[in-house]
Amino acid sequence: MSRTHKITLIPGDGIGPEVSNAVVRILEAAGAATGVAFDWERSAAGAEAYEKYGEYIPKELYASIERNRVALKGPVTTPIGGGFKSINVTLRKKFDLFANFRPIRNLPGLETHYPGVDLIIVRENTEGSYVGLEFEVVPGVVQSIKVITEKASTRISEFAFEYSRKMGRKKVNTVHKANIMKMSDGLFLDCSRKVAARYPEIGYSETIIDNTCMQLVTNPYQFDVLLMENLYGDIISDLCAAFVGGLGLVPGANLGTECAIFEAVHGSAPDIAGKDLANPTALLQSAVLMLHHINESETADRVQQALENVYQEGKTLTKDVGGNSGTMAFADAVVAAMETPVTA
Ligand code: ATP
Predict the structure, then answer these.
(1) What are the start-end ranges of the H helices in the chain?
(2) Model confidence at 140, in pLDDT bands (50, 70, 90)?
(3) CA-nearest residue, atom 19 of ligand 1
(4) How far is the CA of 199 from the centre of ligand 1 (A)?
(5) Whose CA is nearest to atom 20 of ligand 1?
(6) Which of 78, 102, 247, 330 to mutate to test the pocket of ligand 1 (most atoms within 8 A of CB)?
(7) Which domains, from first to last, does the chain contain?
(8) Is the pTM of this model over 0.90?
């Protein structure tokens, strides 16, 4: 008899539906082989949801996440400049998904400028410059408020150190700009230091955000776990994605105490939407994180192993990583790799 997991699925827009379909196909094949079934509760969000239901985040979507406590989410476009508030940011705040966890690792067989990278980005997910507090003071003068609290800074620091202790990671480095933002980043730094003092077995260092960018590009191997506030985490994630082959590859998890939403680092990539060019690897690796989260590690390992075999073989890759296969052809190759016995 199979175990069934109810999971909220937000396909998203842009390349979202293509990568979501590919990932669902792979997960169902893996689940069929390991006795795991998925009951997907699908929901639209963003502009598409507004057209259908008159709401950017339908009430049923909130209810579904509250019920299931786990969601797999494709990218949802955030309008630039004006328009509605980011759906991603709204969901993270609504469910208090305070920790954004993004592992940056190379896939076997995929040549990059930086082989053997193994970095963890821990991004504070609920405040900083993403609180959406912007005002026009007088015409021509706009104020944007960055909020840093002791509570959120301490809990994200504790998350980074607890994760490091559990996974045997050696060092946490806090990224900041406390030389300029002395009070806000100063408080973040102060909280990190206090938490670091409680974990003497784990190394601790600090780097200023601009220098961090240069240090990363010069030698990413000097870092292990990178801890930072919201905006810096957004920027550093895209930078680090380039180490391992680009945005098509890097997964993410938004974790809270009650719920979790798993989503890729990339956005909706409208330039390649609907063209069968999107790489579903980032969402697939996010789904692998999700499978571990729901204690389905055997299924997770099966998917990850098949994915790595496809990269190792290098014959059925998407265009962004140098191949010429489409999104679904890539998914089919991962499914076929699951059916091939793995040779040690
Ligand atoms: P956001 O700010 O919404 O996170 P972004 O600025 O990170 O978005 P993306 O939409 O992620 O931008 O995409 C940037 C570019 O990277 C795209 O134009 C596309 O060419 C490429 N890209 C992103 N995701 C993928 C993917 N899954 N497969 C292939 N290419 C991708």
Answers:
(1) 16-34, 47-53, 59-68, 87-94, 150-167, 184-197, 209-218, 230-241, 281-293, 297-313, 327-339
(2) very high
(3) 269
(4) 37
(5) 269
(6) 247
(7) 3-112+245-337 (3.40.718.10)
(8) yes
